[in-house]
Amino acid sequence: MPETSGTSRAVAMLIALGALLYTARVLELLLATGLDPVRAYASELSAADRPFGRLFRSTDLAAGLLVLAGSATALPTLPRRPWCVADRAALAAFGPATAVDSRLPLSCAPTGDPECAARETAGLVPATHTAHAYSSTLAMAGAPAGPAALTVAARRYHRWPELGRGGPVLLAVQLAATVWTLTAVAAFEAGRGVWWLGAGQRLQVLTATGWLAVLALSVARGSAGPPGRGTGGKDRPDAVARAVMRH
């Protein structure tokens, strides 16, 4: 079933607003958070003992709920094609995981507070630290999965040309940032330094925001290429027939 223009606009608006709120972390450049953006986990901005923790928790909650609403609105209108469904499934995982993340804040900032780091290593922090790690992992897993599915869908089905062009770049940067972050986390937990952990994680966030923004733009434009084009650029009769039947 093709997306109606009204539904497309609603989906685009929800995702765009979610992307805008997800960028609220850039406010740390203007606010006295007491954290080093190059070293600190992005999640530490929302820690219970941080001066602006409530602000960042609220924006993450709103961003996650808006993205979830956008994916839920889009799902019934999507073509039943595997890569389209995979993309919205990744989006649906990213949204609620981000919202849950905001409800499971860290109690303190381990990279900025040696005492907090020691308590975390000794297992003397609240259970929310462990729960937060799981929800953050799920959210960040949805971030590269979304661009991957989108890129394949855009190129294979000749829809959303903006995603077809920008998807490979977003995916490459997202994967590089994810590897960087995971390596830095492992080094930090092993007591081998921070390895610019904060910079890697913030690059993840920036790329995820770019993915949401490009997706919102593509949905708003309702971009779709020739329905019967395959990877070789030739019309496939079965694809043409299905396109005619759908319309």
Cα separation of the termini: 9 Å
| Helical fraction | 55-70%
Report the mean per-residue pLDDT as an integer.
80
What count of helical segments does DSSP give? 8
Radius of gyration, CA atoms, in whole angstroms: 20 Å
Which band does the percent of strand residues land in?
Answer: under 5%
Uncertain runs are 223-247
Q: Strand-and-helix sequence, N→C?
A: HHHHHHHH
Strands, count: 0
Q: Report the sheet with the most strands, covering strand number, pairing sense and barrel closure.
A: none
Question: What is the general shape?
Answer: elongated
- Look at the helices and sheets and give the structural class: mainly alpha
Describe the structure.
The structure is a single chain. This protein has 247 residues and is mostly helical. It has helices at 5-22, 53-74, 82-103, 114-121, 128-157, 161-189, 197-221, 237-246. The longest helix has 30 residues, at 128-157. Residues 223-247 have low confidence and may be disordered.
Keywords, please?
about 250 residues, mainly alpha, 8 helices, about 65% helix
Question: How are the elements arranged and paired?
Answer:
Layout: H1 5-22, H2 53-74, H3 82-103, H4 114-121, H5 128-157, H6 161-189, H7 197-221, H8 237-246
Helix pairs in contact: 1-2, 1-7, 2-3, 3-5, 5-6, 5-7, 6-7
